[in-house]
């Protein structure tokens, strides 16, 4: 394929991906009320005075919360289609035996992305939120606004969705021979150091509890990645021989 052919192929994949996200957005917006409650009710329960709830100081702030929630849910719903388009874009550069992993790639990536989002929703963000809201005194009252609260929430949710792709990344890099289980085991101490650095960058609070809660599943996923690399590499060696 020429350079222009690659650009045309990229355009087609982007059009399909964006269209799938828009469809997901419309579907999510049709059921937006329960989704907003799913996101906000656990956060309200952690406030010093749950009866007050959140505040918004701009006329469009609450409306844009609905838009943002629908956009995030639409992205999650469209994730299999987006990942499939990405795979089809890079597939011409793969070997024949590598192209058959389209379904495993889409399934694993979607599974771990959704798992990361759920982990952030149920475990990570409540811990960070409780820490951030624990500084109320007689001089200060914690009455958070909707917009910055959701921005913090979505940052952690998407960050966890991305870092939970580690097993998927290792699976395919092991299949093409870039890494193996021995390499991962030998560099475990460096990986743990990098994991805690990434966790420190992604967590907004900086407290040890939130940082550890962010890093712990990444360490577990690294251990899972070692097992995946160990299982995949011998299979590739057998096929090549």
Any overview of this molecule?
The chain is mainly alpha-helical. The chain has a domain at 1-121. 78% of the residues lie in helices and 0% in strands. The chain has helices at 3-30, 32-45, 61-90, 96-99, 102-132, 146-163, 166-175, 181-186, 188-202, 208-240. The longest helix has 33 residues, at 208-240. The protein is flat and about 65 Å long. Mean pLDDT is 83; it is low at 235-241.
Describe the protein's topology:
Layout: H1 3-30, H2 32-45, H3 61-90, H4 96-99, H5 102-132, H6 146-163, H7 166-175, H8 181-186, H9 188-202, H10 208-240
Which bin fits the share of residues in helices? over 70%
Describe the main β-sheet briefly: none
Shape: flat
Enumerate the spans where pLDDT stays under 50 for 5 or more consecutive residues: 235-241
Short description:
This protein has 241 residues and is mainly α. The protein contains ten helices and no strands.
Task: Name the descriptors.
241 residues; mainly alpha; disordered C terminus
